[in-house]
Write a structure and sequence with these properties.
Helix content: 10-25%
Order of helices and strands: EEEEEEEHEEEH
CATH class: Alpha Beta
CATH architecture: Alpha-Beta Complex
Number of strands: 10
Strand content: 35-45%
Oligomer: single chain
Number of domains: 1
Shape: globular
Structural class: alpha+beta
CATH topology: Nucleoside Triphosphate Pyrophosphohydrolase
Length: about 150
């Protein structure tokens, strides 16, 4: 519902958290990162677009800030609607598959980065990654469909 020039959600309805993320796979492993606020939970690198940014601009800025890399040949992979793992609110995540310009190094609010198969028993992935992105990457043959 619109009031004046401000969009307002009906009572009890939360506007989804809008984020962009990169599915970066090299040698059969997916790059995931954890934040200092919750270092035990791993996500795809990315973040929230600024008010004046489109998805690709936001992805480029976030990857530079978080990992010191640029996305190469990004392609739309999927839109995921799920609960945000850290914030616990509805989220709409636009995921791009991309290569990166160099070896990533964690910066900004990141605690760790890992290259994973998704089959690690001690790895706590955000539900959106575990339940939506990993199966799609396996279905497309980008990640192995079985633990090796």
């Amino acid at each position: 519902m619109e009031q004046g020039s401000v969009l307002v959600s009906p009572p009890g309805e939360l506007e989804p958290l809008v984020v962009v993320a990169a599915a970066i796979v090299q040698e059969g492993r997916l790059l995931v990162v954890s934040k200092q606020a919750a270092p035990e939970v791993f996500y795809l690198p990315g973040g929230k677009p600024d008010a004046d940014e489109g998805p690709m601009e936001a992805l480029t800025r976030e990857l530079d800030e978080e990992l010191g890399v640029q996305p190469l040949e990004p392609r739309f992979l999927t839109d995921v609607e799920a609960l945000a793992a850290l914030e616990g609110v509805p989220m709409k995540m636009t995921v791009f598959e991309a290569r990166i310009s160099r070896t990533p190094e964690p910066a900004a609010e990141l605690a760790h980065l890992k290259w994973v198969s998704g089959y690690e028993s001690d790895l706590r992935l955000a539900p959106a990654v575990r339940d939506h992105v990993l199966p799609l990457l396996r279905q497309h043959g980008v990640l192995p469909s079985k633990a090796t």
